[in-house]
Amino acid sequence: QVQLVESGGGSVQTGGSLRLSCVASGYTHSDFAMGWFRQSPGKEREAIASVGSDGSTGYADSVKGRFTIAIAKDQPKITLYLQMNNLKPVDTALYYCAALAGFLTATQALYTMTDPYEQNSWGRGTQVTVSS
After folding, report:
1. Which of 12-39 are b and which e, b meaning 16 or more Cβ less than 10 Å from the residue's Cβ?
2. Stretch 43-61: mean pLDDT
3. Which site from 29, 61, 67, 86 is most exposed, i.e. has the minimal number of CB atoms within 10 Å?
4. How many CB atoms lie within 10 A of CB 95?
């Protein structure tokens, strides 16, 4: 059973920065992708960044150029990061870490991470609040 634990959320002003972390444990799949998605009250989940099984990275247009995803593999522990710069009030949301079993490119991971498939695992989220 994969366990994902996010941390690093908080409250910042417009233009500020935060770095989110996600520690993954219990992962036994040899091929996997990971990513971040977010959800605001009353809105649908939005996949924003991913790392594919091949090491490729992908970003939603809404965060491209401001957010950077990175992964550190120190088996058995895997840590996923999301560096968020130039934050805006529209970035306020609950941010979730996702792990996807199987071989996926970053683009495929962006498209599928928010679907409740059996091979997808999600953390419980960390809140990011950006004030103007």
Report:
1. beeeeebebbbbbeebeeeebbbbbbbe
2. 97
3. 61
4. 24
| Dist CA 128 CA 12 (whole Å) | 8
Structure tokens at 8: 């690093």
Residues 94-118: what's their mean pLDDT?
A: 94
Greater model confidence, 31 or 110: 110
Which tokens in the block code for residue 50?
């991913």
Q: What is the CA radius of gyration of the chain?
A: 14
| Alpha carbons within 13 A on the beta-carbon side of 61 | 0
- Scanning the chain, the segments in alpha helix (DSSP H) are 106-112
19-31 pLDDT, tens digit each = 999 999 887 777 8
CA distances from 66 to 3, 23, 69, 80, 122 (A): 28, 22, 10, 17, 23
Helical (H) or strand (E) element with 125 = none
